[in-house]
Amino acid sequence: MSRNLSMIRDVDQHKDQAVTIGCWLHNKRSSGKIQFLQLRDGSGFIQAVVVKSDVPNEVWDAAGKLTQESSLYVTGTVREDTRSKSGYELTVTGIEIIQVSSDYPITPKEHGVDYLMDHRHLWIRSPRQRAILVIRAQIIRAIQQFFDERGFHLVDPPILTPSSCEGTTNLFHTKYFDEDAFLTQSGQLYMEAAAMALGRVYSFGPTFRAEKSKTRRHLIEFWMIEPEMAFITHEENLEVQEQFVSHIIQSVLDNCGKELEVLERDTTKLKNIQAPFPRITYDEAISFLQANGHEIEWGEDFGAPHETAIAEKYDKPVFITHYPTEIKAFYMKPDPNRPEVVLCADMIAPEGYGEIIGGSQRIDDPELMEERFTEHELSREAYQWYLDLRKYGTVPHSGFGLGLERTVAWICGLDHVRETIPFPRLLYRLYP
Ligand code: 4AD
Ligand code: MG
Asked: Does ligand 1 have an atom closer than 6 angstroms to the CB of 424?
């Protein structure tokens, strides 16, 4: 039998008409002769009202049998209802139960995080988790739109790689038949090759870091957007980044008002986020931290408390630029006036969300790249192809990587990145 199903998000197009919706029972309340069904179909939530005196006995009884997360087809008339959140209500005329669900493990009472994480496959049905995943999808849409509209091409770097990009300490090792292989930490090196072929490119894919850190900002598997641009210098790279992040925020504000409301996100803080963003140098950041009681010396990397202290001075993301060459990746271009620092920037989000972007201008000089290979003891065999890029028509180029989950956590105002991805891989969690 084919049913002409409607979606809850579209009920406003069916005012005073009959619709049938495939859905689940989220919650139920009854007052004698009336049952109020809170229904969800993934596209939204709606209240359906069953009035005993207006429906056949079977329909009344079917409504009575429905338990949390039972699946059904409901038929009813769409009524405008200014009191309800969605603005619409359904007056039920028919119910066809697909399955009565028993003992659904996530009840409206409070559950601990571990319990919820064990039931992540069901937890994602809850209104809060749904809102987060909808916003994540919108952020991805905004990202693709931003680059597609600016002449970038999407390029997919490999996941299985013979060598590392961001150092060897947190590589996931695997066998590739008889060879050793690693899950990618970043597609950047391949994106540099792609930029020399297509000019402006971006990748969007999963990256893996076997980080032994159990913090609210770290995942083992996370998604990164990595643009790479030929003929673009450090300063222009920062301009692309601030435009990019402003665009993402605006797109979520424009399209996800309901979801931000479910999350009770203070959107006044997001409305501020418009380019340009403030910039401070690493040197200035160190002086500021030292003046404010932090024990940190020039040459040390920032930890989360440092980043948060710096971010608190601003109501927008802030760029920290020109880090010491020593503590940054081998491929970053030294400042020609001051080779002890590199032409790089980390973008630190406001409200304590930490680094959301890492980027830099890349070394384009073949001799300097050779020197770095020696210093960092990189295998010329594994990376010969990368050295070729500096040999055959090298050009100035820059790029960056935005961590999707940290961006989602910030925009949604979440305590932890574990809720930003459907099935998080954490230090002690591979299930479900
Ligand atoms: O700063 P990172 O390590 O930069 C790179 O990988 C460069 N190759 C990017 C490039 O220039 N193409 O990582 C980039 C971003 C970080 O700013 C952070 O947002 C995110 O990736 N990130 C993580 N997110 C969640 N969990 C982790 N363990 C992360 N590690 C990095
Ligand atoms: Mg970084």
From this structure: no
Strand partners, 22: 73
Q: Where are the beta strands (DSSP E) in 246-302?
A: 279-281
CA distances from 23 to 48, 56, 147, 363 (A): 11, 21, 36, 55
- The Å distance, Cα 400 to ligand 2 centre, comes to 10
Residue 1 has pLDDT above 80, yes or no: no
Q: What backbone phi and psi angles, to 5 degrees, belong to 266?
A: -75, 100
Whether 153 is covered by a domain: the verdict is yes
For strands 45-51 and 88-99, give the pairing.
parallel
Q: What is the residue range of 71's domain?
A: 8-99
Ligand 1 atom at minimal distance to the Cα of residue 357: 17
Strand-pair partners of 362 = 332
State which amino acid sits at residue 359: G
Pair 221, 206: CB distance under 8 Å: yes
User: Where does the pLDDT of residue 164 fall: very low under 50, low under 70, confident under 90, or very high at 90 and above?
Assistant: confident
Atom of ligand 1 nearest to the CA of 407: 19
> pTM of the full predicted structure?
0.97
55 closest CA partner among 17, 19, 92: 92
Give the CATH number, domain containing residue 61.
2.40.50.140
* 193 occurs within a structural domain: yes
**What's the chain's Rg over C-alpha atoms?**
26
Mean pLDDT across the chain: 97
Distance separating alpha carbons of residues 49 and 72, to the nearest angstrom? 15
For residue 215, pLDDT over 70 is answered with: yes
Atom 15 of ligand 1 has which residue's CA nearest to it?
Answer: 403
Rounded to whole angstroms, how far apart are CA atoms 63 and 34? Answer: 10
- Alpha carbon nearest to ligand 1 atom 23, residue: 403
Whether the predicted pLDDT of 193 surpasses 70: yes
* Distance from C-alpha of 46 to C-alpha of 382, rounded to nearest angstrom: 57
Among all bound ligands, the one having the nearest atom to the CA of 209 is 1
Asked if residue 307 has its Cβ within 6 Å of ligand 1, the reply is no
- Least confident window among 166-180, 229-243, 278-292: 166-180
pLDDT at 85: 82
Structural domain total, the chain: 2
